């Protein structure tokens, strides 16, 4: 009688029942030079990981440094592997997991903000309701006509998600989001 063949003992064979995926916000300080972003993103795509949010900007002009902020979702052990491999790329100076940097309580979670520009078309009561909701969510009107509004809203991604969901039945036409910008709390820098 032959024994059934068992898959090799590898972290890639862990099933979702054994480990939950987690959302992680990574801050990566890199040299501001051509090709760096492609190399960083290549590590994620090579492992089949989606990037939920990506922002990149030069943060220190004199030193030619940029900050890449990535929000991704994955298994903790694979995220740890990604962070380790990111650390080894030559133009990468630091990789900070902002999700883990402060601890577990709400007061130590990273500060995350996103900007969204949202177009809503509507007349009559829907128009009045859209303006009322914008006031509640502290969204600014940046363009308007008798048939539409364009709102600008800044806040946590969950706030923007809620605002968009509420505007959906009122004539939501189009959304443009910047992606998450994030910093750790406290007096120390990354």
Structural descriptors:
Acetolactate synthase small subunit, transferase, 9 strands, Alpha-Beta Plaits, alpha+beta, 190 residues, four-stranded antiparallel β-sheet
Question: How do the helices and strands line up, and which of them pair or pack?
Answer:
Layout: E1 22-31, H1 36-46, E2 51-60, E3 65-74, H2 76-88, E4 92-97, H3 98-101, E5 111-121, H4 125-136, E6 140-144, E7 148-155, H5 157-167, E8 172-177, E9 181-183
Antiparallel strand pairs: 1-3, 1-4, 2-3, 5-7, 5-8, 5-9, 6-7
Describe this structure as you would to a colleague.
The chain is an alpha+beta fold. It has two domains: 85 residues, ACT domain (Alpha-Beta Plaits); 73 residues, ACT-like. Chain A, domain 2 (Alpha-Beta Plaits, 2-Layer Sandwich), CATH 3.30.70. It is 27% helix and 36% strand. The protein contains five helices and nine strands; from the N terminus they run E-H-E-E-H-E-H-E-H-E-E-H-E-E. Strands 5, 6, 7, 8 and 9 form a five-stranded antiparallel β-sheet that branches. Strands 2-3-1-4 form a four-stranded antiparallel β-sheet. Its EC number is 2.2.1.6. Dimer of large and small chains.
């Amino acid at each position: 009688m032959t024994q059934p063949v068992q898959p090799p003992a590898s972290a890639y064979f862990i099933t979702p029942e054994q480990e939950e995926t987690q959302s992680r916000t990574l801050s990566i300080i890199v040299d501001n030079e051509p090709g760096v972003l492609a190399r960083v993103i290549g590590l994620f795509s090579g492992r089949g990981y989606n990037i939920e949010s990506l922002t990149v900007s030069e943060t220190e002009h004199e030193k030619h440094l940029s900050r890449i902020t990535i929000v991704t979702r994955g298994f903790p052990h694979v995220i740890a592997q990604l962070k380790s491999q990111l650390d080894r790329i030559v133009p990468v100076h630091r990789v900070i997991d902002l999700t883990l940097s402060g601890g577990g309580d709400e007061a130590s979670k990273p500060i995350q903000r996103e900007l969204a520009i949202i177009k809503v078309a509507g007349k009559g009561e829907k128009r009045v309701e859209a303006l009322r909701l914008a006031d509640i969510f502290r969204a600014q009107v940046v363009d308007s006509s008798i048939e539409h509004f364009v709102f600008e809203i800044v806040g946590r991604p969950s706030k923007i998600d809620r605002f968009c969901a509420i505007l959906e039945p009122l004539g939501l036409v189009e959304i443009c989001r910047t992606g998450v910008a994030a910093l750790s709390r406290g007096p120390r820098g990354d």
